[in-house]
Amino acid sequence: MPSPLPSRLSAFAVWAACLLAPAGVIATAGVAALGAPPAAASSLDLAVRVNGQGAEQATSISLADLAAMPQTQVRAVTPWTEGVVVFEGVPFADLAARVGVSEGPVALTALNAYQITLDAAQVIASGGVLALKMDGKTMSVRDKGPIWLVFPSEARPELAATDNTHMWIWQVNAIDFGPR
To answer: Could you give the residue ranges of the DSSP H alpha helices within the chain?
Structure first.
């Protein structure tokens, strides 16, 4: 059994652990290794919350459930990959529609607690996809998986321009729709 990880890790330590540790160790440690409570049943599941009108709805969607949803492919050129990459996953618009949201703020959180708040309507209009596969292979935590919000930047190069790269977030494990 591996030794327990410290309660707070730097982003570099998380990155190094993802590169050096066996996948089982990362899956076992999950978000709890960062000192934050797990947001979903498994640290690699997707926690989805909808806040609004004074009420909150929360659910956890397993990777298998996401993979069972209708999938789409997008071709992308990114600063983090070489050449054109084909991503496959759930259109962000489909997940938003499933929870009844089409606009407003949406906060996406990664396994390392990095968080970005975007406009849901902009992500939908930009063709955002919650990718589970890259070039036909399921993405591991080491490969920016298991979920990476990607955009069709081959057809729309402005989506990968420096001023838009903040929208691309990998290792997504929580999505919060609505004001926080």
So the answer is: 11-20, 23-29, 63-68, 92-98, 120-125
